[in-house]
Automatic annotation (TrEMBL):
Pfam family, one: AA9
Reactions catalysed, as given in the entry: [(1->4)-beta-D-glucosyl]n+m + reduced acceptor + O2 = 4-dehydro-beta-D-glucosyl-[(1->4)-beta-D-glucosyl]n-1 + [(1->4)-beta-D-glucosyl]m + acceptor + H2O
Protein's name in the database: AA9 family lytic polysaccharide monooxygenase
Residue intervals of the Auxiliary Activity family 9 catalytic domain: 20-219
Length: 250
């Protein structure tokens, strides 16, 4: 972990100026946590005591929502470190020069039922629930303003996506998953996701009920009905199947 002031002043950590992209780093309060960078050598990152991000090898999207890498990208191997955070605190995912502007953004949590690094924990079989979702703010699907567009910053400053850990969440180890779904190509949504380890503390004792849970892969589909749902219903918010409802009041 490194001071946020140092982080914001360090040009060498910007990276990812190409198209596509992913989460570069995370912040909680004034503390910065370094994420995985697919442009750097894996041997300099894998197993490092500071690494909170599950490994992802490419800035390119996952085009097929039915593959196992939908959970935490490819290959999605476990990280060693965890971000300590108290239930009710904010966590920010930091991106740079995010290119795309159309489509929703969804933040997920999954309890690891022990250590997120355990060989017995499988992210693609975990029970995921939404803690945040950002969509169309105004106008139409193509010409309107999505949060994804508002989130962009081409000045070189960080693109910051902040969500709150539910205040009554049961303490324990969780994966947090930030997902951007880009809809700029008709009938071909692009899925960008990264996962990081969290160690949640606090006095809460709650987990979401079954109606809020989903699996990844399993939530999104590529059939015509669901693609239409993305295009039409997203004008009013989100295509919400019952197992992917946004939790409220937790």
């Amino acid at each position: 972990m490194i001071s946020l002031i140092f982080f914001l002043g360090s040009a060498v950590l910007l990276g990812f100026t190409q198209a596509h992209g992913g989460v570069n780093n995370y912040t909680v309060g004034d503390t910065w946590y370094r994420g995985y960078n697919p442009d750097n050598a894996p041997e300099d990152q894998d197993g490092m005591p500071w690494q909170v991000n599950r490994r992802w090898n490419s800035i390119n999207p996952i085009p097929d929502p039915s593959v196992l890498s939908m959970a935490c990208n490819d290959p999605g191997t476990a990280a060693v470190a965890s971000i300590p955070i108290e239930a009710g605190q904010d966590i920010s995912a930091i991106y740079y020069f995010w290119l795309h502007a159309i489509g929703p953004m969804v933040a997920w949590l999954a309890p690891c039922d022990g250590s997120c690094n355990s060989p017995s924990f499988n992210a693609s079989a975990a029970s995921w629930f939404k803690i945040g979702q950002r969509g169309l703010l105004s106008g139409g699907v193509v010409e309107g303003t999505w949060f994804q567009r508002e989130f962009q910053d081409w000045s070189g400053a960080p693109n910051i996506w902040t969500e709150t850990i539910p205040k009554n969440l049961k303490p324990g180890e969780y994966l947090i998953r930030h997902e951007i779904i880009s809809l700029h190509i008709p009938n071909a949504p692009q899925f960008y996701m990264q996962c990081a380890n969290l160690r949640v503390t606090g006095k809460g004792n709650k987990l979401p009920g079954k109606k809020y849970l989903g699996t990844l892969p399993g939530v999104w589909r590529m059939d015509r009905e669901f693609l239409r749902c993305f295009i039409v219903i997203l004008k009013m918010g989100y295509c919400l199947r019952k197992e992917t409802l946004l939790i409220r009041g937790l």
